[in-house]
Amino acid sequence: MTRATRRGRRRTALAVAAVAASAALAIQLPATATATPAAPHPAAAHLSGAPAAPGATHTAYDDTYYKDAIGKTGQELKSSLHQIIKSTQTGKLTYSQVWDALKDTDEDPNNKSNVILLYSGRSQSKDAHGGNPDDWNREHVWAKSHGDFGTSTGPGTDLHHLRPEDVSVNSDRGNKDFDNGGSPVPEAPGSFTDNDSFEPRDAVKGDVARMILYMAVRYDGDDGFPDLEPNDKVDNGTAPNIGKLSVLKAWSQADPPDAFEQHRNQVIFDKYQHNRNPFVDHPEWVNEIW
């Protein structure tokens, strides 16, 4: 089967998913899983977890955290969100602290001794992390070589794009851009890869897209770190870019935020960084900016 044929099938699957998403959120966990909400932050008391419909009255949460962004579009919205999520990120972690934080943010709600691996979807012991092939390690969804920001405190330790993943699968992804197509990835059912791109399983496609777009808004070149920007290319190398933007936008549309992703956003806000991924709270803002 050719890569183009696989991509065509992937696009068809995404279109079907987009229709289904209007009736129910796509859940990335087993059907029996229910996420336990984090203790609410005072400013988040009225967060609904669902995007506001066009013309709808915004929640009290929008009147606090996002008050300076509401009603804006395009570059003005992007700039406003950058200031919000930068200024409220009062908690910053070291790379060693990320291990314990991921045990909390990505905890399996059906087994609190385990975490859910991003691309694999496997529930694995929190303690089974390290460098062995079947351990889990810290996956940088925005590959750290794209901008060469390393693992010092900053984009290299930002929990909004760091996830637990099987060591072998993490190696298979490497620093590849995101796109549709390729060959199946061992130990990550539903994921595909080729020599210049990686396609995650359907249930986390939107998660990946929203993490990438968060990074593009948060790190804008004004705080000593590279200006991270998505583009519509693959094989970006060490440039501070990741693609493909058109594919990421389609993934975000087809796979809207689910309970696990919303809970994760809340835990990071309440307990660790105290900033939010705006595209989890308002996925419609993806198309408003890009």
From TrEMBL:
Signal peptide, first to last residue: 1-26
The keyword Kinase is assigned to this record: no
Superkingdom of the organism of origin: Bacteria
Keywords: Endonuclease, Hydrolase, Nuclease, Signal
Region described as Disordered: spans on this chain: 146-201
InterPro entries in alphabetical order: Endonuclease-I (IPR007346), His-Me_finger_sf (IPR044925), TAT_signal (IPR006311)
GO molecular function, one term: endonuclease activity
PANTHER family associated with the record: ENDONUCLEASE-1
Name of the protein described by the UniProt record: Endonuclease
Record organism: Streptomyces catenulae
Record lineage: Bacteria, Bacillati, Actinomycetota, Actinomycetes, Kitasatosporales
